[in-house]
Design goal:
It contains five helices and ten strands, in the order βββββαβααββββαα. With about 200 residues, the chain is α+β, with helices and mostly antiparallel strands.
Length: about 200
């Protein structure tokens, strides 16, 4: 039976067989002596993402020390609210905090407050590129792609994508875009190429 120590992009901690590529913690120990979780999901406001292997150091996942958590990748860790660790990922952590424009402790406190009381985005353009919205088995994202053809012609397209996820796998995927904008910017040879349809 796997331990309940795998973190989803939504910050939930689940028990699954699959392994992660990153380690992390939430500021200390919050698991029980029988290696299960109670109601607590953090020990402090410091949520970090670490290297899975660092200088041969060993750590028992749910031993006497901190509660080890695992992430599929760094994107998952960041989405779940974990920042780079200053111990094993110092360069990444310094760059992350530089971009945040504040020191680690105030940043961690601010982020922790937003975890408990999420702010609602206001106004057009309030959601950043790459925002993910999920409900049940459906996930919706918005992103931009820049397409460039060999002549140097390029266009930046805004996409809305909807995925249907079952058992952790994408079952169906839909992309929506401003097709008229694409048709107006694309070179004629490309339009001629796609006109008969894909076979």
């Amino acid at each position: 039976m796997p331990l309940q120590n795998r973190v989803t992009p939504f910050g939930n901690i689940v028990a699954v067989e699959s392994r992660g590529t990153m380690l992390g913690n939430r500021g200390g120990k919050f698991h029980r002596d029988d290696k299960t979780l109670g109601r607590r999901r953090w020990a402090s406001h410091h949520w970090i993402a670490c290297e899975l292997h660092y200088k041969g150091m060993q750590h028992e996942a749910m031993g006497k020390g901190y509660t080890s958590l695992f992430f599929l990748d760094e994107v998952t860790a960041l989405a779940a609210g974990h920042r780079p660790c200053f111990f094993c990922r110092r360069a990444e952590a310094k760059r992350f905090m530089q971009l945040a424009g504040m020191a680690a402790d105030p940043f961690d406190r601010l982020l922790h407050e937003e975890r408990r009381n999420p702010p609602l985005p206001q106004g057009e353009g309030a959601l950043p590129d790459g925002t993910m919205v999920a409900s049940g088995d459906h996930v919706m994202t918005e992103h931009a792609e820049t397409w460039t053809w060999e002549e140097g012609v390029s266009i930046t397209l805004r996409f809305t994508s909807v995925q249907e996820v079952r058992d952790g796998l994408v079952h169906r995927w839909w992309d929506y875009l401003d097709f008229s904008g694409l048709m107006a910017a694309a070179p004629q040879w490309w339009l001629d190429h796609i006109a008969p349809g894909y076979k």
